[in-house]
Amino acid sequence: MISLKDLINKEKVPFHIAIIMDGNGRWAKKRGKIRLEGHKKGVISVKKVVEAAAEIGIKYLTLYTFSTENWKRPKAEIEALMLLLVSSINTEIETLKNNNIRLLTIGDLTSLPLSVQRKFKHAIKATSNNTGLSLILALSYSAKQDIVNAARRLCWNIEKGGLSVTDLTEEIFGKYLSTADIPDPELFIRTSGEYRLSNFLLWEMAYTELYFTKTLWPDFDKEEFYKAILDYQNREKR
After folding, report:
1. Which of 9, 22, 130, 234 does the annotation list as catalytic?
2. Catalytic residue among 9, 24, 70, 130
3. Which domains does the chain have, with CATH numbers?
4. Which of 13, 47, 198, 228 sits between 20 and 30 A of 59, alpha carbons compared?
5. What is the pTM of this model?
6. Is residue 199 flagged as an active site residue?
7. Are 140 and 172 in contact (CB under 8 A)?
8. H-helix or E-strand containing 138?
């Protein structure tokens, strides 16, 4: 059986893809399961998409893993999500190392439990020399807050005389964002049929191609990922 992967032009894959992985809760509800089961199934989709991205030569993949708004969820669900994050890192760190995948994070890592922070810092250090796919997890992330934080750092630099107001450009401002060393996404994917950016990479996605699918994240597999890339490449041809 032919895979959509075979139809992809490997010379024109997006350099950076950003994804909002939406629909875990609805997937679980449709099956009469608790929300955590949807999150667990969603982790399997993450593994599939990361593998697919690495196979076809994507250089950067950013996943909206936990937003600042997610802190408003029930305490029990948040605790379960944190445990799931830790267990996932424990399970996958060797896979990342063996597949030349570098792990990075954006967002307020300090707001996460200390055990989670330690696991991520260890994984980031352990994969820092890898040169293949850069997997970026947005954790306790808010694009608006990141822009505000960048503005604060910029103002402090101007106050100290390190920069003049007249020198300010979009390029210079971008260097104060948490994504300063990461290229802007060329393709954005959101699952579950929602048509919003939800406070995700608002500055960085000014010119990004947007792709929305009704597929719930736990059902989003390699073929669905390839379908999004083919849609992107067809737009490029037009």
Report:
1. 22
2. 70
3. 13-141+185-237 (3.40.1180.10)
4. 198
5. 0.95
6. no
7. no
8. strand 134-141
